[in-house]
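Dear H.,

Thanks for agreeing to be a second pair of eyes. The structure we're designing against is below in token form, covering all 155 positions.
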């Protein structure tokens, strides 16, 4: 889960150094208190929730801001991987448009989009991570997609 957790943290925190700090803090906490990890019924949801908690700790301490994280957390996955210079320029433009559009979302919507699109978590898993029902997560996702479509001109 390392790569997925890291991408999620970069998306939340926006700064790779802070994401690395959060990852390290996450695994140090698990090593210091393995009982909670070993008792987790769903390891993936537990790890993402623990990563989210670490990100929130950093955000509350004022050490991180969601800004450039989308470029590294997965927006590039949504654009073509062709290699020509024209396509590379178009891909970069698309990635920047998507990054700007994602930054217009409310934090709750943004986080669910990251978890659903970039980390491929189910609504049930997302609900366990963010502390909401799967139905609420689906609703937030739907509203986020509608807002992104408007921002990107795809009504």
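And this is the sequence the design step returned. I haven't edited it by hand at all.
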């Amino acid at each position: 889960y390392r790569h997925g957790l890291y991408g999620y943290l970069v998306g939340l925190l926006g700064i790779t150094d802070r994401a690395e700090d959060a990852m390290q803090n996450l695994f140090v906490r698990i090593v210091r208190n393995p009982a909670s990890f070993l008792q987790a019924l769903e390891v993936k949801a537990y790890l993402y929730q623990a990563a989210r908690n670490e990100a929130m700790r950093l955000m509350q301490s004022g050490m991180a801001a969601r800004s450039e994280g989308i470029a590294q957390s997965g927006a590039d996955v949504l654009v073509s991987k062709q290699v020509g210079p024209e396509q590379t320029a178009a891909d970069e433009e698309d990635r920047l448009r998507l990054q700007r559009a994602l930054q217009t979302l409310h934090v709750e919507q943004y986080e669910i989009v990251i978890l659903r699109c970039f980390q491929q978590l189910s609504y049930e898993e997302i609900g366990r991570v963010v502390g909401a029902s799967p139905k609420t997560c689906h609703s937030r996702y739907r509203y986020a997609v509608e807002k992104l479509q408007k921002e990107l001109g795809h009504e």
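Two observations from my side: The radius of gyration is 16 Å. The mean pLDDT is 82.

Warmly,
E.
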